[in-house]
Amino acid sequence: MNRIFQWFDERTGLSGPIRGFLNYPVPKYVHRNFLYTLGGLTLIAFMLQIVTGILLAFYYDPSTEGAYNSVDYISYQLPLGWLVRGVHHYGSSAMVILASLHMLRTYYFSAYKKPRELNWLTGVLLLFLVLAFGFTGYLLPWDQKGYWATKVGTEIAGSVPLVGGLIMRLMRGGEALGQATLTRFYAGHILLLPASVALLIVAHIFQLRHHGMAPAITKKAQAQSKTFVPFFPHWVITDTIAGLGLLALLVYMTWANHAPLEFPADPTSNSYVPRPEWYFLFYFQLLKYFPGVLEPVATILIPLFLFGSMVLLPFIDRSEERRPWHKPVTTLVSIFYIVVIIVFTILAMAAYA
Ligand code: HEM
Is the CB of residue 81 below 6 angstroms from any atom belonging to ligand 1? Predict the structure, then answer.
């Protein structure tokens, strides 16, 4: 075994970098705090999506004639197909929740401050790409739910002043939803997005390793900031246990409630009420408050403002203070957003009930 390892090492020279990666010193306060596993858990959720996604791709047919039947076959006839599809379905929600919670952790711990601006910015992009995964994946079964939500979603993009029409045609691959749309969403979902997310995760983790974890914010954690444990096995074991817990939860959710599949897409139906995935509901609710000429406020101004403030945050908040209870403005602003998102989601759910 040793000789095989040596043979490879002489040719690749990888043992040094791998040892460096595994022995990386992690402060004890990080290892002991569950909140610091959220980033690793998001990564594990992404890996689960890749594995289940590859398995699904062996049977999925990306054509408007075949997509629905192939998903129906995976769900009801293929041995364990329901399980793989269910873990992928609930896994996408898990990724959105975990990436959002991880973002809140880094936000409240002020981990976006100098010199970690790029870590935060790659994170912001990752969050948007995770949402794009959800949006593109929703259409793939080519059922009523996916078809009509995508029709409305692309119409929203189409209502952006000046460039809206172009964006909508680019997304749809023409004027109407059809084969070109499905091909584009499929290519985005299985090629463009996974490659972009994987590259960004590498950049994100490289930044993290370059600067180390942001300073601790509590006195108790600060007292432990000079004591370190190696990344392997300590952090790896914690994350693996958390990852197995996540997998168990996804399997349980699938077993309790199989991933939904509605009737096949019917472009002529005029009674179907379009419904997006639950994590876009708050946005659908927001759109209701800006009808007619006010629509661009919700389709362009508010998203631009939100995205812009997330991007600019590390450059605006430059104080030394990191404790959220001493930073009322950033803390209250975030609480306001969280409350609005929860209330709007509940209102939208009540409207669909
Ligand atoms: C696919 C999505 C993501 C993955 C896989 C990921 C992964 C990770 C991991 C493994 C860590 C180290 C452990 C931890 O702090 O939990 C980390 C740290 C960090 N992440 Fe993410 N992340 C993602 C999304 C985000 C988002 C959406 C943001 C914010 C907008 C963000 C900002 C940060 C920052 C600032 C740090 C440094 C934390 C510190 O120094 O204390 N990440 N990320």
Answer: no
Structure confidence at residue 32 (pLDDT): 81
Task: Give how many domains the chain has, as a whole number.
Answer: 1
Q: Residue 48 domain-assigned? A: yes
Report how far residue 286's alpha carbon sits from residue 296's, in angstroms, rounded to the nearest whole number.
12
Residue 110 Cβ inside 6 Å of ligand 1? The answer reads no
Question: Helix count (H) and strand count (E) of the chain?
Answer: 17, 2
Domain span at residue 42 reads 25-277
Per-residue model confidence as pLDDT tens digits over 264-309: 999 999 999 999 999 999 999 999 999 999 999 999 999 999 999 9
Q: Is the CB of 126 under 6 A from ligand 1?
A: yes
- Mean pLDDT value across residues 3-9: 95
CATH number of the domain where residue 273 is located: 1.20.810.10
189: which 2 tokens?
């979902």
Residue 107 lies in a domain: yes
Q: Among all chains, which residue has been given the structure tokens 């043992």? A: 15
